[in-house]
Amino acid sequence: MRKLYTKKQSKKDELKNLEPSKETIQFLLNYSKNLRIVDFQGIKFESILN
Amino acid sequence: MNNVEITDAVLVRNYMNGNEAALSTLINRHQHRIYSFIFSKVFDRDVAEDIFQDTFIKVIKTLKKGKYNEEGKFLPWVMRIAHNLVIDHFRKNKRMPKFDNSGDFNIFSVLSDSDLNAETQIIKDQIENDVKELIKELPEDQLEVLTMRIYKDMSFKEISERTGVSINTALGRMRYALINLRKIIEKHNLVLTN
């Protein structure tokens, strides 16, 4: 029988080292930088600057 | 050595005042807890990633619009947004169930026949007839409330008006009707499942 040399992670271990990808974080930071909220007569408009 | 950590409240205020770096600190500080929380519910890295992203998009929009008020704490607020988005995700999936495409495509994984077949229909009719017979053993006042509620689909307000008792009494009678019905089912050793 083929041997498995990798140890299966338990659910607990799996939850320990969980983090979102760097791309997601970068996207959020860029999104935040590009998002402008314009207030016009009490109505708030969103615009994304590229 | 600078041991003083800037609090979330200060970072949020700085971010709302235009300091973009404050958001980066907030995300770095809490990303693990928020992402783990989402993953522990959905058990799919891609879905968790999407929900994490949507959570912070909501956070960013709310903060930029100045709608956030520091009544509660920042992290519980973000966790609440994530929690609601997880619920939305499951609701959406319920409406549009995904099929398992790990093996050969099976059309019955996306199509299902919810109608009862002839056998289950006969069993259902039989159970309904048995229940109709059983409720006749209930005391008159309980039988009256149960019939109005279940078979005539009346509200407890309507039942209380019709029978001349308070809503609480009607609720109590319904409760005892169900308790007694269970006792009758146990006494007769009946199995009323399809």
UniProtKB/TrEMBL annotation, chain B:
Coiled coil: 117-144
Residue stretches making up the RNA polymerase sigma-70 region domain: 26-95
InterPro entries the UniProt entry points to: RNA_pol_sigma-70-like (IPR039425), RNA_pol_sigma-70_dom (IPR014284), RNA_pol_sigma70_r2 (IPR007627), RNA_pol_sigma70_r4_t2 (IPR013249), RNA_pol_sigma_r2 (IPR013325), RNA_pol_sigma_r3/r4-like (IPR013324), WH-like_DNA-bd_sf (IPR036388)
Pfam families to which the protein is assigned, alphabetical: Sigma70_r2, Sigma70_r4_2
Keyword field: Coiled coil, DNA-binding, Sigma factor, Transcription, Transcription regulation
Residue ranges of every copy of the RNA polymerase sigma factor 70 region 4 type domain listed in the record: 130-169
Superkingdom in the source lineage: Bacteria
Similarity-based family: Belongs to the sigma-70 factor family. ECF subfamily.
UniProt name for this protein: Sigma-70 family RNA polymerase sigma factor
Species whose genome carries this gene: Salegentibacter maritimus
Taxonomic lineage of the native organism: Bacteria, Pseudomonadati, Bacteroidota, Flavobacteriia, Flavobacteriales
